[in-house]
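Researcher: Structure prediction, please.
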Amino acid sequence: MAEEEIRKEEAAEAASEEVKETETPETEEAELDTLRAKVKELEETIADLKDKALREAAETENYKKRLRQEKENAVKYANEALIKDLLDPLDNFSRAIEASETSKDFDTIKTGVVMVEDQLHTLLKNNWGLEAFSPDGEDFDPSDMEACMMQEVEGLEKEKVLQVFLKGYKLHGKVIRAAKVVVGKPKSN
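Model: Predicted structure follows.
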């Protein structure tokens, strides 16, 4: 068995010597040229991929900056439409103040101020969904009202609003400021 292995080894050595003998310097140079071309091609591919990765990273960073700026602007100018809507009533208040300086007709001035208040309420209700409520005489509801004072009153069966100190406001049905009220409660015996 050892002889067989030796023969196999000798045959393999002879075959490799034949391959070495058939390789000429020109063949080796051609193989090297092929390998160099392949290396150059791979280096170019790597350079292209690096460039593409850098461009994508820069594009992603620019996108993030743009989003950040848009968010800042959205927050900064979120109330722009509301402010524009309030400019006319503000101008009307200025006119009322100017009129009060030259006129002594207080009824006319009061009428002008009431008109501006109505204009504001209408604008805020129609354009922004804001509604004022004044629950005078209604049953007391702690979800919409804040009791500032309590008074015992004869003849009441349940708690009722006796007086409104400050109107409440709802924005699209949600209470954003509870009405501040005086609450009458049934007299205890």
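Model: The first strand starts at residue 130 and ends at 133.
Researcher: Thanks, that helps.
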